[in-house]
Amino acid sequence: MANHYSEDRHVQExxxxxxxxxxxxxxxxxxxxxxxxxxxxLGRSSEKEIVLTKFxxxxxxxxxxxxxxxxxxxxIEKITEYSISKDFKQINHEKYDLLRNGVVVDVxxxxxxxxxxxxxxxxxxxxxxxxxxxxxxxxxxxxIYRRRADIxxxxxxxxxxxxxLKRVDKDIRHAYDENFTDYKDTVP
Length: 188
Fold this sequence. Notes:
Elements: H1 7-21, E1 27-30, H2 53-63, H3 69-80, H4 88-101, E2 103-108, E3 114-119, E4 132-141, E5 146-155, E6 158-163, H5 172-186
């Protein structure tokens, strides 16, 4: 008799549904066969993009209304930039500061003078005002390797949750030692 067990259907889909139904996440998307491009599944132009600007830009506009389009462009650029000259710890510290405290951009005021504005990325006061998205089976392309994550949780297009799931008959330690550790090295 054939084994009709599907790790996605029995474990990943169930977990994603739990996020939506019990934790009130907005939606879940199955991305194994993701269509790339602006009108695609997640709006990514390539599998190297991990920040979902399709969801980030509307969040920036909603949280920081009435700014010129250039302000949102600057914020997205700062959030998504990546420096190969910095180590993982430095990058994480800088991104944490941007996400926690806001992104500083230059905006021209009514008198034509450039001023600094700090754009919020998340609504920490009213969490339900944020967009929560669970993406299953997301392909991510690193510099050399391509990996597929079980579930990535995005808040306003920012990846904040990584979930590696295993069938009940598999060793959970393997998920950490093999999968998660590998992902950190191959698709940071």
